[in-house]
Design brief:
This protein has about 140 residues and is mainly beta. Strand 3 and strand 4 form a beta hairpin. The longest helix is centred in the N-terminal third of the chain and has 8 residues. About 30% of the residues are buried.
Length: about 140
Amino acid sequence: MIKITSIPLCAALALAGCSGNDDPGPGSLQSSTFDGVADTEMVHYTGTEPFWGGAAGGGMATYTTPENPDGAEFPVERFAGNNGLGISGTMDGVGFDLTITPGECSDAMSDRSYPFTATLLIGNEQRQGCAWTDSQPFTELEIP
Protein backbone atom coordinates (compact mmCIF):
# COMPACT_ATOMS: atom_id res chain seq x y z
CA MET A 1 0.00 0.00 0.00
CA ILE A 2 1.42 3.36 -1.05
CA LYS A 3 0.56 6.39 1.06
CA ILE A 4 1.04 9.69 -0.72
CA THR A 5 -0.29 13.01 0.49
CA SER A 6 0.73 15.15 -2.48
CA ILE A 7 -1.44 13.32 -5.03
CA PRO A 8 -4.30 15.87 -4.94
CA LEU A 9 -1.77 18.56 -5.84
CA CYS A 10 -0.31 16.42 -8.63
CA ALA A 11 -3.78 15.63 -9.96
CA ALA A 12 -4.70 19.29 -9.86
CA LEU A 13 -1.59 20.21 -11.79
CA ALA A 14 -2.14 17.43 -14.34
CA LEU A 15 -5.71 18.55 -14.91
CA ALA A 16 -4.99 22.27 -14.70
CA GLY A 17 -6.87 22.88 -17.93
CA CYS A 18 -10.05 23.01 -15.88
CA SER A 19 -9.17 26.45 -14.56
CA GLY A 20 -11.35 28.24 -17.08
CA ASN A 21 -8.57 30.63 -18.05
CA ASP A 22 -8.64 30.62 -21.85
CA ASP A 23 -5.69 33.02 -22.12
CA PRO A 24 -2.47 31.05 -21.55
CA GLY A 25 -0.46 34.27 -21.35
CA PRO A 26 2.64 35.38 -23.24
CA GLY A 27 5.13 32.65 -24.04
CA SER A 28 2.78 29.85 -22.97
CA LEU A 29 1.79 26.93 -25.16
CA GLN A 30 -1.91 26.70 -25.96
CA SER A 31 -3.39 23.37 -24.89
CA SER A 32 -6.82 21.88 -25.31
CA THR A 33 -9.15 20.12 -22.93
CA PHE A 34 -9.04 16.33 -23.07
CA ASP A 35 -11.85 14.98 -25.24
CA GLY A 36 -10.82 11.31 -25.50
CA VAL A 37 -13.90 10.11 -23.61
CA ALA A 38 -17.37 11.43 -24.48
CA ASP A 39 -19.45 12.92 -21.65
CA THR A 40 -22.07 10.22 -22.19
CA GLU A 41 -19.67 7.27 -21.99
CA MET A 42 -19.38 4.93 -19.03
CA VAL A 43 -15.77 4.60 -17.84
CA HIS A 44 -14.80 1.19 -16.44
CA TYR A 45 -11.71 0.80 -14.24
CA THR A 46 -9.81 -2.05 -12.62
CA GLY A 47 -6.68 -2.58 -10.60
CA THR A 48 -4.73 -5.23 -8.74
CA GLU A 49 -2.78 -5.53 -5.51
CA PRO A 50 -5.27 -5.01 -3.95
CA PHE A 51 -8.00 -5.94 -6.44
CA TRP A 52 -10.49 -3.15 -7.11
CA GLY A 53 -12.73 -1.96 -9.90
CA GLY A 54 -15.91 -0.18 -10.86
CA ALA A 55 -17.50 2.16 -13.34
CA ALA A 56 -18.51 5.81 -13.55
CA GLY A 57 -21.10 7.55 -15.69
CA GLY A 58 -24.24 9.63 -15.44
CA GLY A 59 -23.05 11.37 -12.28
CA MET A 60 -22.63 8.12 -10.33
CA ALA A 61 -19.73 5.74 -9.67
CA THR A 62 -19.34 2.27 -8.25
CA TYR A 63 -16.33 0.86 -6.48
CA THR A 64 -15.90 -2.88 -5.97
CA THR A 65 -13.45 -5.11 -4.12
CA PRO A 66 -13.36 -8.87 -3.51
CA GLU A 67 -14.76 -8.15 -0.03
CA ASN A 68 -17.60 -6.07 -1.52
CA PRO A 69 -18.36 -7.52 -4.99
CA ASP A 70 -21.68 -5.63 -5.23
CA GLY A 71 -19.75 -2.42 -4.63
CA ALA A 72 -20.52 0.95 -3.17
CA GLU A 73 -22.42 3.47 -5.31
CA PHE A 74 -22.03 7.22 -4.81
CA PRO A 75 -22.38 10.53 -6.71
CA VAL A 76 -19.37 11.94 -8.55
CA GLU A 77 -18.41 14.96 -10.59
CA ARG A 78 -16.54 14.54 -13.83
CA PHE A 79 -14.21 17.05 -15.45
CA ALA A 80 -11.80 17.08 -18.37
CA GLY A 81 -8.36 18.59 -17.92
CA ASN A 82 -5.42 19.02 -20.29
CA ASN A 83 -4.21 15.43 -20.14
CA GLY A 84 -7.11 13.33 -18.97
CA LEU A 85 -10.39 12.94 -17.20
CA GLY A 86 -11.01 13.47 -13.48
CA ILE A 87 -13.81 11.76 -11.56
CA SER A 88 -14.28 12.88 -7.94
CA GLY A 89 -16.70 12.22 -5.13
CA THR A 90 -17.01 11.00 -1.57
CA MET A 91 -17.41 7.31 -0.79
CA ASP A 92 -18.37 6.36 2.76
CA GLY A 93 -17.08 9.72 4.03
CA VAL A 94 -13.70 9.39 2.28
CA GLY A 95 -12.49 11.26 -0.80
CA PHE A 96 -12.55 9.31 -4.10
CA ASP A 97 -10.40 10.91 -6.81
CA LEU A 98 -9.87 8.99 -10.04
CA THR A 99 -7.72 10.25 -12.91
CA ILE A 100 -8.04 8.58 -16.33
CA THR A 101 -5.26 9.29 -18.82
CA PRO A 102 -4.64 7.93 -22.32
CA GLY A 103 -1.95 5.32 -22.68
CA GLU A 104 -1.62 1.59 -23.16
CA CYS A 105 -2.07 -0.20 -19.85
CA SER A 106 -1.74 -3.75 -18.58
CA ASP A 107 -2.97 -4.95 -15.22
CA ALA A 108 -0.23 -7.65 -15.20
CA MET A 109 -2.82 -10.23 -14.13
CA SER A 110 -4.75 -10.80 -17.34
CA ASP A 111 -3.92 -11.07 -21.01
CA ARG A 112 -5.53 -7.72 -21.78
CA SER A 113 -4.36 -4.36 -23.03
CA TYR A 114 -6.36 -1.30 -21.94
CA PRO A 115 -6.47 2.10 -23.70
CA PHE A 116 -6.25 4.18 -20.50
CA THR A 117 -4.39 4.24 -17.21
CA ALA A 118 -6.27 4.84 -13.96
CA THR A 119 -4.81 6.46 -10.86
CA LEU A 120 -7.13 6.28 -7.88
CA LEU A 121 -6.78 8.11 -4.60
CA ILE A 122 -9.09 6.96 -1.80
CA GLY A 123 -8.39 9.18 1.17
CA ASN A 124 -4.57 9.13 1.29
CA GLU A 125 -4.20 5.69 -0.36
CA GLN A 126 -3.13 5.64 -4.01
CA ARG A 127 -3.92 2.75 -6.36
CA GLN A 128 -2.83 2.17 -9.95
CA GLY A 129 -4.92 0.46 -12.59
CA CYS A 130 -6.32 0.51 -16.09
CA ALA A 131 -9.51 1.80 -17.69
CA TRP A 132 -11.70 1.43 -20.79
CA THR A 133 -15.02 2.55 -22.24
CA ASP A 134 -17.58 0.75 -24.38
CA SER A 135 -16.36 2.59 -27.50
CA GLN A 136 -12.69 2.08 -26.52
CA PRO A 137 -12.61 -1.44 -25.06
CA PHE A 138 -9.70 -3.50 -23.82
CA THR A 139 -8.21 -6.02 -26.23
CA GLU A 140 -7.21 -9.59 -25.56
CA LEU A 141 -3.49 -10.13 -26.13
CA GLU A 142 -2.41 -13.04 -28.25
CA ILE A 143 -0.18 -15.50 -26.46
CA PRO A 144 2.41 -17.05 -28.84
